[in-house]
Structure formats: C-alpha cells, structure tokens
C-alpha cells in the first residue's frame, strides 16, 4: 500500500509533554471545585477538552452546563498556553522531526490533529517552527470541526485539505484509545499507537491498533514492512 497522508496526534505523540495537560486540567477543575484524580484525567486524554471537562464535572456532581464548561475550559487554555510557551520540558518528541522528514522524502504528506483548541496547537507549531521549516503540511483541532474524537471529522478535513480521497491511503498515529477509535472511524489504512504518552503499551493493545510502537523512531520500519507485505 502506498500511503499519501500521515495524521499525527500532538501531546504525547509528537510533542513531549511531561503530564502538563493533566496538571493544567486538574488545576482548572480544582478552581471550579472539582477535585479530579489523575487516573480520571488520564482516562480522558485525547478527547476534546470541553467534553472531558463536562464529563468530569458531571461525575463529581457539579454543574456541567455550557457556560460552566466554557469557563473552566477558558481557564485550562490559558494555563496550557503559558506552559507551552515557557516550560523548558516542552519539545518535539524524540524521533518526531526525523520521521516527518523521512515521510516527506517518500512523498507522504504530514498533518497534525489534536483535541486541543487551535490556539494551543498553533502555539506549539510556532514554538517548534514546524511550518516554516516545511516539516508539516497541515494541522487542525477539535474546535474547527463539528465533532472531535472519536468522530473522523478532523481526519476527513485533513484529507480534503491534502487532496486525499481514499482513507486507506491514510495512516493515523496517536497515544490514546480515542486516537485508535478515530483512525478506525475514518477508515484509515493503518492505525498506529505509540506508548510515549497517556497510555501504556498494555492499555493500548487492549484497543486493538494495528501496531503499538515504543517510539516514533520505529515507524519507518513498520511502514516498510507494510509496504512490502501490501498490508495497509
């Protein structure tokens, strides 16, 4: 199978984030009187943040109306923007930039998608200078489509932008169960999980991706094997 488009998640997949998302979400919820535990928060990584916030507020018997959810989300966004602009631990995930370049050398377009809002995504892209350096071709976020993960809307939007019509020629890479579900919903030819973020290898395997990698440096060999065996 010849792939035309790669769709990568951001935090935990292509962006090294030492639990900053969990920390920012926990702090924003605490300001609203919701003392959510880390396991609760980790279980919702990869989902749109307003949806995660609504779920957690409701689980703690707190108001989960649109106004309250948006208030907590706005607090979360400001915390994330500060972290992602200034925290020294925020950097491209090991192997990410080399992988982007390797894919481009083979004529495969590189796109990013994220459960963050677009302002957070753009903050990271600008910090790493990925657009100017030609390392990515497109990026989208959950707030730019009708439905976020696990719906296929973001992948389909990126396909349309890249002129890709066959989802079998797209592969999706992410670090959460909802990334896997998104790739399946979109009909991607290959759905790959990486154990570098919110979920362990065992947790990812339970959701049946086509492969689980320990890092992005293993992706090239996986794609070569898929090409040689004609299995997408």
UniProtKB/TrEMBL annotation:
GO terms for biological process: DNA repair. One of its GO terms (molecular function) is phosphoglycolate phosphatase activity. GO terms for cellular component: cytosol. It comes from the Bacteria. This is HAD family hydrolase. It comes from Dyella japonica A8.
């Amino acid at each position: 199978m010849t792939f035309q488009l790669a769709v990568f998640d951001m935090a935990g997949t292509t962006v090294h984030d030492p639990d900053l998302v969990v920390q920012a979400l926990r702090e924003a919820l605490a300001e609203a009187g919701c003392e959510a535990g880390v396991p609760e928060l980790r279980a919702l990584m990869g989902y749109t943040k307003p949806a995660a916030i609504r779920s957690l507020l409701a689980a703690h018997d707190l108001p989960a109306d649109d106004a309250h959810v948006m208030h907590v989300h706005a607090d979360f966004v400001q915390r994330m923007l500060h972290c992602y602009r200034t925290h020294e631990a925020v950097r491209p995930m090991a192997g990410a930039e080399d992988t982007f370049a390797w894919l481009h050398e083979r004529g495969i377009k590189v796109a990013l998608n994220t459960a963050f809002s677009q302002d957070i995504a753009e903050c990271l892209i600008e910090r790493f200078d990925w657009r100017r350096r030609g390392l990515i071709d497109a990026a989208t976020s959950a707030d730019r489509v009708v439905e976020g993960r696990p719906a296929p809307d973001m992948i389909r939007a990126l396909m349309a932008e890249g002129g890709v019509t066959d989802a079998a020629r797209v592969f999706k890479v992410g670090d959460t169960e909802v990334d896997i579900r998104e790739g399946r919903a979109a009909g991607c030819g290959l759905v790959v999980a990486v154990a570098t973020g919110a979920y362990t290898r065992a947790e990812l395997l339970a959701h049946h991706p086509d492969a689980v990698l320990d890092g992005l440096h293993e992706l090239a060999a996986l794609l070569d094997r898929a090409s040689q065996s004609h299995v997408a």
